[in-house]
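Q: I have 160 residues here and want to know how they pack in 3D. Can you give me a structure?
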Amino acid sequence: MININATTFLVIVNFLLLVYILKIILFDPLMNFLDERSKSIKESMDKAEESRLQANELVEEHKKILQETHLEARHIIEKATLDAKKEGGNILKQARENAQRERETTRQEIRNETELIKKELRQEIASFSVQIAEKIIEKEIDARKHQAIIEKSLNELKRN
Protein backbone atom coordinates (compact mmCIF):
# COMPACT_ATOMS: atom_id res chain seq x y z
CA MET A 1 0.00 0.00 0.00
CA ILE A 2 0.89 3.59 0.06
CA ASN A 3 2.88 4.86 2.94
CA ILE A 4 2.36 8.48 3.75
CA ASN A 5 5.19 9.83 5.68
CA ALA A 6 6.56 13.29 6.30
CA THR A 7 8.66 13.31 3.12
CA THR A 8 5.69 12.59 0.95
CA PHE A 9 3.76 15.24 2.74
CA LEU A 10 6.61 17.76 2.21
CA VAL A 11 6.88 16.83 -1.51
CA ILE A 12 3.13 17.44 -1.89
CA VAL A 13 3.34 20.77 -0.02
CA ASN A 14 6.41 21.76 -2.11
CA PHE A 15 4.61 20.82 -5.30
CA LEU A 16 1.50 22.82 -4.31
CA LEU A 17 3.66 25.77 -3.27
CA LEU A 18 5.53 25.59 -6.60
CA VAL A 19 2.25 25.48 -8.52
CA TYR A 20 0.96 28.49 -6.54
CA ILE A 21 4.17 30.52 -7.13
CA LEU A 22 4.21 29.58 -10.83
CA LYS A 23 0.57 30.59 -11.04
CA ILE A 24 1.27 34.00 -9.54
CA ILE A 25 4.56 34.67 -11.34
CA LEU A 26 4.02 32.95 -14.71
CA PHE A 27 0.48 31.78 -15.44
CA ASP A 28 -1.49 34.90 -14.40
CA PRO A 29 0.71 37.35 -16.36
CA LEU A 30 0.78 34.94 -19.30
CA MET A 31 -3.02 34.60 -19.24
CA ASN A 32 -3.42 38.39 -18.92
CA PHE A 33 -1.04 38.87 -21.88
CA LEU A 34 -2.94 36.30 -23.96
CA ASP A 35 -6.30 37.91 -23.05
CA GLU A 36 -5.00 41.37 -24.01
CA ARG A 37 -3.54 40.00 -27.22
CA SER A 38 -6.85 38.32 -27.99
CA LYS A 39 -8.72 41.59 -27.35
CA SER A 40 -6.21 43.50 -29.49
CA ILE A 41 -6.60 41.03 -32.35
CA LYS A 42 -10.40 41.20 -32.05
CA GLU A 43 -10.30 45.02 -32.08
CA SER A 44 -7.99 44.97 -35.11
CA MET A 45 -10.35 42.58 -36.87
CA ASP A 46 -13.33 44.81 -36.01
CA LYS A 47 -11.46 47.89 -37.26
CA ALA A 48 -10.47 46.06 -40.44
CA GLU A 49 -14.08 45.03 -41.03
CA GLU A 50 -15.24 48.59 -40.40
CA SER A 51 -12.59 49.92 -42.80
CA ARG A 52 -13.64 47.37 -45.42
CA LEU A 53 -17.28 48.48 -45.08
CA GLN A 54 -16.27 52.14 -45.35
CA ALA A 55 -14.15 51.34 -48.39
CA ASN A 56 -17.11 49.55 -50.01
CA GLU A 57 -19.33 52.56 -49.27
CA LEU A 58 -16.74 54.87 -50.80
CA VAL A 59 -16.47 52.64 -53.87
CA GLU A 60 -20.25 52.71 -54.29
CA GLU A 61 -20.30 56.47 -53.79
CA HIS A 62 -17.55 56.92 -56.39
CA LYS A 63 -19.41 54.69 -58.82
CA LYS A 64 -22.53 56.79 -58.31
CA ILE A 65 -20.58 60.04 -58.82
CA LEU A 66 -18.93 58.57 -61.92
CA GLN A 67 -22.31 57.59 -63.37
CA GLU A 68 -23.67 61.07 -62.64
CA THR A 69 -20.62 62.61 -64.28
CA HIS A 70 -21.05 60.42 -67.38
CA LEU A 71 -24.71 61.36 -67.54
CA GLU A 72 -23.91 65.05 -67.18
CA ALA A 73 -21.19 64.79 -69.83
CA ARG A 74 -23.66 63.09 -72.18
CA HIS A 75 -26.16 65.91 -71.61
CA ILE A 76 -23.50 68.52 -72.26
CA ILE A 77 -22.47 66.78 -75.50
CA GLU A 78 -26.09 66.51 -76.64
CA LYS A 79 -26.70 70.19 -75.87
CA ALA A 80 -23.52 71.21 -77.66
CA THR A 81 -24.53 69.11 -80.68
CA LEU A 82 -27.98 70.71 -80.79
CA ASP A 83 -26.49 74.19 -80.38
CA ALA A 84 -24.01 73.48 -83.17
CA LYS A 85 -26.79 72.27 -85.48
CA LYS A 86 -28.87 75.35 -84.64
CA GLU A 87 -25.89 77.66 -85.21
CA GLY A 88 -25.10 75.85 -88.47
CA GLY A 89 -28.69 76.37 -89.60
CA ASN A 90 -28.47 80.07 -88.73
CA ILE A 91 -25.20 80.44 -90.63
CA LEU A 92 -26.67 78.64 -93.63
CA LYS A 93 -29.77 80.85 -93.52
CA GLN A 94 -27.62 84.00 -93.36
CA ALA A 95 -25.48 82.74 -96.23
CA ARG A 96 -28.58 82.14 -98.36
CA GLU A 97 -29.92 85.60 -97.52
CA ASN A 98 -26.58 87.18 -98.38
CA ALA A 99 -26.42 85.25 -101.64
CA GLN A 100 -29.97 86.38 -102.51
CA ARG A 101 -29.06 90.02 -101.79
CA GLU A 102 -25.91 89.68 -103.90
CA ARG A 103 -27.94 88.21 -106.78
CA GLU A 104 -30.44 91.07 -106.59
CA THR A 105 -27.66 93.64 -106.44
CA THR A 106 -25.92 92.01 -109.39
CA ARG A 107 -29.15 91.91 -111.39
CA GLN A 108 -29.76 95.60 -110.69
CA GLU A 109 -26.20 96.43 -111.71
CA ILE A 110 -26.66 94.42 -114.93
CA ARG A 111 -29.92 96.29 -115.65
CA ASN A 112 -28.21 99.63 -115.02
CA GLU A 113 -25.26 98.69 -117.22
CA THR A 114 -27.63 97.44 -119.93
CA GLU A 115 -29.51 100.75 -119.90
CA LEU A 116 -26.24 102.68 -120.00
CA ILE A 117 -24.96 100.58 -122.91
CA LYS A 118 -28.26 101.04 -124.75
CA LYS A 119 -28.00 104.82 -124.33
CA GLU A 120 -24.41 104.83 -125.51
CA LEU A 121 -25.34 102.58 -128.41
CA ARG A 122 -28.20 104.91 -129.41
CA GLN A 123 -25.85 107.88 -129.32
CA GLU A 124 -23.30 106.06 -131.44
CA ILE A 125 -25.97 104.87 -133.89
CA ALA A 126 -27.28 108.43 -134.08
CA SER A 127 -23.80 109.74 -134.66
CA PHE A 128 -23.14 107.11 -137.36
CA SER A 129 -26.49 107.82 -138.91
CA VAL A 130 -25.69 111.54 -139.05
CA GLN A 131 -22.35 110.82 -140.63
CA ILE A 132 -23.89 108.46 -143.17
CA ALA A 133 -26.70 110.89 -143.89
CA GLU A 134 -24.19 113.74 -144.33
CA LYS A 135 -22.28 111.69 -146.78
CA ILE A 136 -25.40 110.74 -148.64
CA ILE A 137 -26.93 114.18 -148.73
CA GLU A 138 -23.59 115.89 -148.70
CA LYS A 139 -24.77 118.60 -146.59
CA GLU A 140 -24.71 118.98 -142.88
CA ILE A 141 -27.87 118.36 -140.92
CA ASP A 142 -28.39 120.00 -137.61
CA ALA A 143 -27.24 117.41 -135.05
CA ARG A 144 -30.10 118.12 -132.62
CA LYS A 145 -32.80 117.65 -135.21
CA HIS A 146 -31.16 114.54 -136.46
CA GLN A 147 -30.81 113.18 -132.88
CA ALA A 148 -34.53 113.77 -132.34
CA ILE A 149 -35.40 111.90 -135.55
CA ILE A 150 -33.18 108.94 -134.56
CA GLU A 151 -34.61 108.82 -131.03
CA LYS A 152 -38.09 108.80 -132.46
CA SER A 153 -37.18 106.01 -134.88
CA LEU A 154 -35.55 103.93 -132.14
CA ASN A 155 -38.53 104.36 -129.86
CA GLU A 156 -40.83 103.18 -132.63
CA LEU A 157 -38.60 100.18 -133.21
CA LYS A 158 -38.60 99.40 -129.51
CA ARG A 159 -42.39 99.44 -129.39
CA ASN A 160 -42.66 97.04 -132.33
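Q: Anything worth noting?
A: The radius of gyration is 61 Å. The mean pLDDT is 85.
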